[in-house]
Structure formats: C-alpha cells, structure tokens
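Anyone? Bumping this.
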Amino acid sequence: MKKIQMVDLVSQYEKIKPAIDSAIMDVLQSTQFINGAEVAGFQKELELYLGVKHVIPCANGTDALQISMMALGLKPGDEVITPSFTYIATTEVIALLGLKPVFVEVNQETFCMDASKLEAAITSKTKAIVPVHLYGQAADMNAVMAIAKKHKLFVIEDNAQAIGSDYHLLDGSLVKTGTIGDIGCTSFFPSKNLGCYGDGGAICTNDDLLAEKLRMIANHGQSKRYYHDVVGCNSRLDNIQAAVLRIKLRQLDNYIDARREVADFYDAFFGAIEGVKIPFRADDSKHVFHQYTLSLDGYNRDGLNEFLASKDIPSMIYYPVPAHRQKMFEEFGSASTDLPITDWLTHRVLSLPIHTEMDLEQLEFITKTAAEYLTLKK
Ligand SMILES: *Cc1c(COP(=O)(O)O)cnc(C)c1O
C-alpha cells in the first residue's frame, strides 16, 4: 500500500508531469518571471471558471485578505466580524491593519459562521463581515448577505478552502463561492484544492471600481508607472506559479469529484457509528472537501488521533486553538468572548486524510483501523 498522507502532491504531480514540466521550462526560457503571459492567461481563465468580472492575482491568501480590507478603506478602530474557528490568517490581517476582530460563534453542523448570532455582534463601529468557507463548506451566505445589506456592511469571503464550490442564491441562481460578497479571497498554497508549487493567492470582485483599487494596492498603490496614489504593498503571483495553476485549474472539477468520492466512502462508514458525526452536507451548496472533518462526541478525539498515528495514518486537528484564545489577540480581551461551540469543536474535531489520489486500499485500511479504536474505546 502506498504511504498514507494528509495530501499526496507527488502522486498528483506525476499524472500531470509532462504538461507542468514543459510549462515551467517555457517560463524559464522566456525569463519573464513577473507579470508574464501566464499570469494574464490564468487571470482570464479563473474569471471564466468562477463567473466573476475581475480576478486580481496576488502573492498569497493572507495578502488577498489584507489588500481587500485596505481597498474597502477600513480604518484603525473599525470592527470586522469573523469566526474564531478558522485558520489564523483570516483574523490576523484584521489586527495587522489596526482593525478590531470581533469573533462570532460558528454553527455546530457546518463549522461556519452562525448567521443567527451576527446581528448581536454588530455595533456602530462594524464595517465588514468575513465569513469563512471552512473545510470546503460554504458559509450561510444568503443569511450573511441579507444582514450585511440591512446594516450596510462589506462582505469579504475567505474562500481559501472552498474554491470551486457552488452556492444557490435565493433568486435561484447558482454561483461560485468567493463571488457572492463584495470581495472573495483565495489561496493557492500547495495543499489547497487548487494549489500551486509555492505561494499564490487571488482576489475577486464584480465591482469595477473596487477591482481597480485592489489592483493598485497590490502593486505599490501605483496608478501608472512610478506614480503612487495610495499606500499599497508588493503582492504578485509569479509567472511560474501561474503556469502551474493554469494546468491545475483545468483539473479542478475532477479534483473536487475525487475528494467528494473519498468523502462518500468515509460517510458510509463513519455515518453508521454512534457518537461520530460526519460532515454536514447542505442543500444549498456543494461541499468541496478541502478537509474531511469528523466531530467526535462519544469518543476520545486525541486517543483516536494517536491510535491512527501508531498505525502510520496521519490525522490532523484543524484547529487546536481558536483565534479568540490566541495570545496574539490578548490586547483585545477576546479570550473572554463566550463561544462555547467554537471551544467545544476545538476539542472534538479530527480531520482525516483526503486528497485527489487516494485509493480504495488506503481508504479501507483507514476505516478498518479507525473501527478497531472506535469499537474498543467507546
Ligand atoms: C490557507 C488559508 C489562508 C491563507 O492563505 P495563504 O496563502 O497561506 O496566505 C487564509 N484563510 C484560510 C481559511 C486558509 O485556509
């Protein structure tokens, strides 16, 4: 049996190696490493795939979030509402810009922002909401957008884990996550569903004016060469990464299907075990399974994690410490925020290996091994 990994990028690369190698060689030959034809091509192709007017490529997903908050004109002291149950990047950039992160509870089923708790977190200083499509599951965007509209707040979607996910809007239309709010941000970190071979990220929006600002900020606030109108930063996707992404974007829907097949296999097994909750599948969106995350109630989560590790099966806790309890946010006193579901989940969730190259033998070994623990240690 092939060694089980959380993500198997080597096997995935082997299948597309000729195309990738020649695309990278072409960039080397061109020596056009920055702002080359591959970046322009990828931008257009991603706009088409997402069905969005503007894609602004940038250096990574964290920058995408930061540039978005800068482009919306958020000022020190402004409040931004975000879940605490997320990767730190979402919340870190809020504080980095001198804004105040205000943490809201997540829904225990979807692991995403609980829209019914949003209004209670809104104050006169609130300027934006940052829902996170965690583990590949879309947040409750219909509800979030309705509240944002009512209170005139910006919405920045953190789509780093859910690129390619479909979402049904209330008007019946089917759109991609990341294109619903004012701005959507994504990451091409190698292990993400659409990953490159280094760092990369993108911002998308349907707003022409905002697109112009985003592009300017990502490029030193430059309006034309050597004329800098606003304080910006240097955040570029390089041409080699764009060349890789163009090839992998053509595979993205297949990659999503492969992940969903793994999830179906796990669901059929774990769904039958009492005290183990399988990921929720919403009617209004398509889960793209960046992670396959169980919540374990009747069982010792850390015990299962260690037992699997002893049999050479990796499993991960995303995330062991929620943002509101991170030392980095001590100055905001956020640890005293009452987020019982977030705290509960950090002690119960366990993510199993899921990627585009898993085979039946590996899946059977994982479930068989988990079964040994789950029947023994109830
Ligand atoms: C990966 C990730 C980011 C940050 O992306 P980078 O490219 O690593 O900077 C932001 N938010 C979430 C939810 C992520 O998973």
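Late reply, but here is one note on the structure posted above: The chain has a mean pLDDT of 97.
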